[in-house]
Design goal:
Layout (H helix, E strand, L loop, with lengths): L11 E6 L26 H9 L5 E6 L7 H6 L2 E5 L5 H13 L3 E5 L1 H5 L9 E4 L4 H12 L8 E4 L25 E3 L2 E2 L10 H5 L4 E2 L2 H12 L7 E4 L8 H18 L4 E5 L8 H10 L1 E9 L3 H6 L10 H10 L3 E8 L8 H12 L4 E5 L7 H8 L19 H15 L2 H14 L15 H20 L4 H13 L3 H22 L22
Parallel strand pairs: 1-2, 1-3, 3-4, 4-5, 5-6, 7-10, 10-11, 11-12, 12-13, 13-14
Antiparallel strand pairs: 8-9
Helix pairs in contact: 7-8, 8-9, 12-14, 15-17, 15-18, 16-18, 17-18
Bound molecules: iron/sulfur cluster.
Iron/sulfur cluster binds next to helix 6.
């Protein structure tokens, strides 16, 4: 639903989403292989706010991962809304500076300001928390006046709007064809309490839910655009945060896919104990899920206990991964270095895990303490938080800083050496991809897929098949997939591999950060939990 209050004035709202700093998980280097793709995923939160605003207010939406907001955009606007994560803080403040230079009132909402409002002293209004009573109050204030307040006003959501009352994201304001994948949200919140994670504090431990009908209406909204991604990512903090709700929702998704001829593939984030949920895994397979991002974090059981992530150990780790793979679901994983439990053996344990798990895509980051987490509180008390823009993390590690950075470098070099990466993909061809359901061709016959397919074919040949030194390694893996009829796999390993190998090279040359959340921004600018 939209805002239901009465507004007296016409307003022009410019919503600006900041650019991301590149990381392993944002796939910037893959975009050029995909033709017209310019950005990773549509920004759900700001699109929902844009859709909630009063119907009589004009809204312009700019995602700066695609193009920068222009002087004309700022001149046109009465109010500038921004949103983003901690990693985007410099870009968020840059948007504010440009808006204020144009004499506009500025509003900041989203996860970063909700976690750490003190980071943004110069915005006029801070919207802390989710869509709710503070949003209505903000709209009423802006309806009254668009003169910047004398001092900053902080509006904090006490009563959240139920997810089942959320409006459809304002997809009509953006071109979905510019994105690598689409985004969809079914639930918000996670029942666990991992020490480093701010999700439970920000979004609660009782997952809140949309209705299945909302989900399918959002999918219909995406389908109404000719040019759109062929894969959609569930941005839920933990897809099985409420297992019963997930079980009740999946049949609707399956029915939608069947009705439309399976035009989409899905991915999500979930905890590793999803391996103990065969009914959910079976339905995910039938719904066309192909990937689950799992925060495995570390192969060391003691470290998992220390970070309160014992739920990762309810099954032996490799057994859990194999079970997930047997439903055609590739596991991608987040890993952390710099933990207090790290020893001289941690680096070897991680590289051994990478090889033995055969997980192709791992985001290996340094530990970072986020505000509103138990980790932050613990390190703060111990005097182990450091605020230096010259460091890759705000944590004073127990091991020497240079040793931790050295381990990180050797681990990413190991993980993304082309021969190892494409060997893991080769393994997945037989262990995972061959277990996926065969979907009808009709759902994929679209102009958008044709254009993207042609671009991918040509660019795969150029950027992986001809140019690089590792082309022989790529071709061996590609032929292995082609012999089994997996053309999609060839494209997938091409664009994922190209990004990971290029990003690793840049990181080893000191051009990229060792932590997704690092303030130490080296690359021009672009959340994952569970
Ligand atoms: S890391 Fe994942 S499982 Fe742990 S609290 Fe955060 S969302 Fe939940």
């Amino acid at each position: 639903m939209r805002y239901t209050g009465i507004v007296k004035n016409q307003r022009r709202i410019l919503c600006v989403f900041p650019g991301y700093t590149p990381s392993f998980g944002t796939f910037q280097h893959a975009f050029k292989l995909m033709g017209n793709v310019k950005a990773f995923m549509p920004p759900q939160g700001l699109l929902v706010i844009a859709a909630y605003l009063p119907a009589s207010w004009e809204v312009r939406f700019v995602d700066e991962n695609i193009k920068s907001a222009t002087t004309d955009d700022f001149t046109w606007a009465d109010v500038v809304f921004a949103s983003g994560m901690h990693i985007q803080a410099p870009q968020i403040n840059d948007i504010r500076a440009r808006a204020q230079a144009a004499g506009k009132v500025t509003v900041l909402g989203g996860p970063s300001v909700s976690g750490a409002p003190e980071m943004y002293p110069e915005f006029d209004y801070l919207h802390v928390g989710e869509l709710g009573d503070s949003t209505d109050k903000l709209i009423a204030i802006l309806d009254e006046s668009i003169v910047p307040p004398a001092t900053q006003m902080r509006l904090e959501t006490i009563e959240r709007t139920p997810l089942h009352d959320f409006p459809l994201p304002a997809y009509d304001k953006i071109g979905l064809g510019k994105y690598l994948i689409g985004s969809l949200q079914f639930s918000s919140g996670c029942p666990y309490r991992c020490e480093f994670c701010d999700i439970p504090q920000l979004y609660g431990r009782q997952p809140r839910l949309k209705t299945p009908e909302q989900l399918t209406a959002e999918l219909d909204g995406m389908m109404s655009q000719t040019f759109r991604p062929s894969a959609v990512y569930f941005v839920d903090d933990n897809f099985i945060g409420n297992r019963k709700a997930t079980k009740d929702m999946l049949p609707h998704l399956i029915e939608w896919q069947k009705r439309h001829g399976y035009p989409l593939q899905f991915a999500c984030e979930a905890t590793l104990n999803i391996a103990k949920q065969p009914e959910i895994l079976q339905m995910m397979r039938e719904a066309g899920f192909i990937t689950i991002f799992v925060g495995i974090e570390t192969p060391e059981a003691g470290a998992l206990k220390d970070m309160r992530k014992e739920h990762n150990t309810t099954l032996p780790m490799f057994e859990a991964i194999n079970i997930i793979n047997s439903y055609g679901l590739e596991v991608t994983s987040g890993m952390i270095l710099g933990l207090d439990s790290d020893t001289d053996n941690t680096e070897a344990a991680l590289t051994t895990f990478i090889d033995a798990s055969n997980i192709p895509v791992l985001t290996i980051n340094l530990l970072q303490a986020l505000p509103k987490t138990p980790l932050w509180d613990r390190l703060h008390k111990a005097g182990r938080l450091v605020e230096s823009d010259g460091l890759e993390s705000n944590v004073r590690f127990l091991r020497p800083y240079e040793e931790v950075i050295g381990s990180w470098q050797r681990c990413i070099e190991h993980a993304y050496a082309p021969e190892r990466l494409f060997e893991r993909f080769r393994y997945q061809v037989d262990a995972t991809y061959s277990n996926r359901i065969k979907t009808p061709l009709r759902g994929k016959l679209s102009l958008a897929n044709l254009v993207r397919g042609l671009a991918l074919t040509w660019n795969t040949l150029i950027y992986l098949g001809i140019k690089p030194k590792y082309r022989g390694i790529f071709w061996r893996a590609a032929l292995h997939a082609l012999k089994r009829g997996q053309i999609d796999t060839v494209f997938n390993m091409a664009f994922v591999g190209h990004h990971l190998i290029t990003f690793t090279k840049e990181a080893l040359e000191g051009e990229q950060n060792a932590s997704f959340y690092s303030k130490h921004t080296k690359a021009p600018s672009k959340r994952m939990a569970a």
